[in-house]
Amino acid sequence: MESKQFYADDFYKNEEGKFYTGMYLENNPWIKSRYTWEKIENPYETLRGKTVRCEYSQIFYPDSSMLLCNAIMAVDECLYDHIENGSCWQYYDEEGNELDEEEAEEYEGEVKERGVDIFQYYLIDDATADRLMHCTDEIIFYSEELDLYVLGVTHFGTGWDYVDMEFVY
After folding, report:
1. Please, what is the average pLDDT of the chain?
2. How many CB atoms lie within 10 A of CB 25?
3. What is residue 1's predicted lDDT score, i.e. its pLDDT?
């Protein structure tokens, strides 16, 4: 049986050529009503390498193994020395526009940086870590102490079905 990239039964494309999951559209009716949608009949071929807007929860099902471990810093105090994916910093130009790390390095004006808050840590299996590292910019650490990957969750207080994100299919 083929392992799924993430949990979604339907994919849609709007007239701007942007891709969304059905769950994303159901949870965002204002987006759904704003565009005309075409259902993608063969997602594997059509979406390969494309960015899909989805809900955070969709990237972890059906085959992900996760264990909440908010006390990870007590177990591995060197965790932040082993960032495998994502960034623990956000960069802004003088007007407050967000820059990615490469843009911040090339920017000629003053760049302000701010640390990213991580609210939860999850131990994750190798397959989930690999998928997230190749398809998202989620913060992934590697704990040498535990020989496991750790996901740093940067949103707090919102159900994962209502947190938007992008996934490269």
Report:
1. 90
2. 19
3. 32
Half-sphere exposure of 5 (CA within 13 A, CB side): 22
pLDDT recorded at residue 15: 96
Residues 6+ apart with CB under 8 A from 39: 10, 11, 12
The angle formed by the CA atoms of residues 143, 56 and 137, to the nearest 5 degrees, is 50
Question: For tokens 């759904």, what's the residue?
Answer: 32
CA dihedral sign of residues 91, 94, 98, 104: negative
What count of Cα atoms within 13 Å lies in the side-chain half-sphere of residue 128? 25
CB burial of residue 29 (10 Å; 0-12, 13-18, 19+) = exposed
**CA 116 to CA 33: how far, in whole Å?**
33
Q: What share of the chain is helix, strand, coil (3-state, %, to 5)?
A: 30, 30, 40
Backbone angles phi, psi at 155, to 5 degrees: -120, 155
User: What's the Rg (C-alpha) of the chain?
Assistant: 18
Q: Which residue has the tokens 């972890």?
A: 60
* pLDDT digit string, tens, across residues 8-59: 679 999 999 999 999 999 999 999 999 999 999 988 888 999 999 999 988 8
